[in-house]
Amino acid sequence: SSTRTAVVVTISTTNTWTGATSASWFTPSNWSCGSVPTAASDVIIPNVTNKPIIDGTNTTALASTLTVNSGSLTVKSGNTLKVTDAVTNNSGTITLENTASLVQINNVANTGNITYNRITNTSVRNTDYTYWSTPVSPLKLAGTGGISYNPMSLAGSIFYSYLLLLFHSRI
Predict the structure, then answer these.
(1) For the ranges 51-60, 71-80, 129-138, which has the lowest average pLDDT?
(2) Cα(36)–Cα(54) distance, integer angstroms
C-alpha cells in the first residue's frame, strides 16, 4: 500500500531586500526569495544595514512594483530601474545619480519623493543656459537653498520662458 501526501506550493511574487550578503541589487542572496527580482516581482525595500545599490555598467534592475519602506535605494549613474507599475516611497529614500534612469511601463499613480542628483558641466557661466526637464511635478531643483520652479511666478526668477511664433505666408 502506498501513502499519498499532498504538497502545497505557494508562489510569492513579493521579493524583499535583506541585504544579507552585500549592497548589490544583483546578488541573489540579498533577496528573500534567493533570486534577483524580475519584471513580475513586487519588490519591498525595508530599512536594513546593507542598502541596495543598482550598480555596474549599463545594467537594468526590474520590478513589477517597488515599495521603499523607510529604507533607501540608490541607482548609480548609467544604470536603469525599470518598474512595470507603481513606485511607492513610504518615508524612504530613492536616489538616481546623474545619468541613471527610472523607466515606468504603465501610467499609474506613484507616491513619495525621488531624488535625482544630476551633474552639470562645471564650465557653465551664469549667462549660459542649461536645460533641465522632469517627468514629474512639481519640478524642484536642489542645491544651495533649493530652487522651486513655479510657472505662474517666473518674474524675477532665474527661469526664462520663450514663446516661439512661426509665421507662414503665401505669395
Answers:
(1) 129-138
(2) 12
- The three cell numbers locating residue 75: 541607482
Query: Which residues share a beta bridge with 110?
Result: none
* Count of CA atoms in the C-beta half-sphere (13 A) of 20: 12
Which residues touch 7 (CB under 8 Å, ≥6 apart)? none
Average of per-residue pLDDT values in the chain: 81
Average pLDDT over residues 107-120: 85
pLDDT at residue 28 in the model: 97
Q: State how far the alpha carbon of 112 is from the alpha carbons of 27, 87, 109, 120, 163, in Å.
A: 27, 8, 10, 25, 33
Closest CA to 70 of 96, 44, 38, 31: 44
DSSP 156: T
Q: Which residue has 545619468 as its cell numbers?
A: 99
Closest by CA position to 158, among listed 117, 116, 127, 124:
127
Burial class (CB in 10 A: 0-12, 13-18, 19+), 119: exposed
Q: Residue 52 and residue 30: Cα distance in Å, rounded? A: 9
Average pLDDT of the residues in 51-59: 96
Q: Is 32 helix (H, G, I), strand (E, B) or coil?
A: coil
